[in-house]
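User: quick one, sequence for these tokens?
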């Protein structure tokens, strides 16, 4: 057993928090009924028959080697996976990846059974011949990902975003496709087939059935797929449907679904300026006596897309510097203390001066959340270096906060901390 692991075990037999595992082999360690929270696994090797009934919540995995036959009933929520090849993991059973972040990861010939990826994000990931059975990808984001020989039929991908993704020789669910962001872009590759009621259709055949699909969705007032499909048929038609959907959802005070519809309108760049102002006035008139966090978010989304809120930190520290990992932990601890309804993701960009990219993914996405993070981060950094903010000191850390205010203006705030 390695010394790092021995030290962690000495704290508690089953709980390992805020521990760094750097370039070690954990193959001989038992993970059964163990809980790991806010740990950092860097270039760690894990070669086991199975990993079951344990938790790795809010942990970071960087360039790790996983050779595991089965991973079952493992809680991996709020984790960050960077450059991980999951191809050597045969099967995942009932594993939870909610709110996790995958960057430059590979999935090949891997099976997922009854797994959850709600609100997960995938950037520059590769999927080849992956099998999903009864798995949930609700509200996920896929950016610059490639899918080959993939089957989107036994998984829930409602309200997920597919941005600049490539899908080849895959099978898509014809009834579920209209419920995603990027629906129009996924209908461009003729090598894909559409599955509806156990029958396969070519893309052209599917497109010819749009009017039949519209009739079906209108009977059940499914506004999201209606807007997606009408966008493919006629832009003016889509504008009318989007406006009517927003009005109906306002009057029914269904602000959760209204938020999704507005996000779709922003994504498709529909709903004209004057119509947006009308919806804002309608929301205001109907929500005076309602305390609902989604109301302010809907207004903000109508003014401008709020997805660009972010914080970047230029540390100037080398990735292998022990101070870097310690600083990341300190910042993470300070942010975690103030979280209630949201969660955050810390990403590392090793090939540029922007070492840390902190994204606050809040349940309600309020502006106050992203703004409130900056002073917490500043205090965390000052405590870490135990220095006063004196410009005479040579080294400094640069924090850039970017957000959109309630008037639709993009605000950029830059602060330097000298050490």
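Assistant:
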């Amino acid at each position: 057993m390695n010394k790092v692991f021995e030290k962690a075990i000495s704290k508690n037999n089953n709980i390992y928090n805020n521990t760094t595992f750097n370039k070690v082999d954990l193959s001989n360690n038992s993970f059964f009924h163990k809980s790991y929270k806010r740990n950092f696994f860097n270039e760690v090797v894990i070669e086991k028959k199975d990993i079951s009934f344990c938790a790795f919540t809010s942990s970071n995995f960087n360039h790790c080697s996983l050779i595991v036959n089965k991973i079952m009933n493992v809680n991996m929520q709020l984790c960050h996976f960077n450059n991980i090849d999951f191809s050597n993991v045969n099967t995942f059973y009932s594993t939870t990846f909610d709110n996790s972040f995958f960057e430059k990861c590979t999935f090949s010939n891997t099976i997922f059974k009854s797994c959850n990826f709600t609100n997960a994000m995938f950037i520059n990931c590769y999927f080849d011949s992956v099998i999903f059975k009864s798995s949930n990808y609700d509200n996920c984001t896929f950016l610059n990902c490639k899918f080959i020989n993939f089957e989107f039929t036994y998984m829930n991908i409602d309200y997920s975003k597919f941005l600049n993704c490539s899908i080849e020789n895959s099978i898509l669910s014809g009834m579920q496709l209209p419920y995603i962001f990027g629906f129009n872009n996924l209908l461009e590759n003729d090598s894909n087939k559409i599955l509806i009621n156990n029958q396969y259709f070519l893309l052209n055949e599917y497109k010819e059935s749009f009017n039949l699909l519209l009739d079906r969705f209108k009977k059940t007032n499914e506004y999201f797929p209606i807007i997606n499909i009408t966008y493919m048929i006629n832009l003016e038609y889509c504008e009318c449907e989007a406006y009517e959907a927003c009005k109906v959802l306002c009057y029914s005070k269904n602000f959760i679904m209204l938020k999704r519809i507005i996000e779709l309108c922003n994504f498709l760049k529909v709903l004209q300026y004057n119509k947006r102002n009308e919806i804002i006035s309608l929301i205001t008139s109907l929500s005076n006596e309602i305390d609902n966090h989604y109301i302010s978010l809907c207004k903000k989304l109508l003014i401008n897309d709020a997805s660009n809120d972010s914080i970047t930190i230029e540390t100037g520290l080398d990735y292998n510097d022990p101070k870097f990992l310690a600083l990341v932990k300190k910042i993470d601890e300070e942010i975690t203390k103030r979280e209630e309804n949201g969660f955050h993701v810390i990403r590392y960009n090793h090939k540029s001066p922007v070492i840390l990219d902190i994204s606050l993914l809040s349940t309600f996405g309020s502006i106050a959340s992203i703004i409130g993070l900056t002073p917490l981060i500043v205090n965390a950094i000052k405590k870490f270096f135990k220095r006063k903010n004196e410009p005479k000191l040579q080294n400094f850390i640069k924090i850039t906060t970017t957000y959109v205010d309630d008037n639709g203006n993009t605000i950029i705030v830059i602060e330097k901390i000298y050490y």
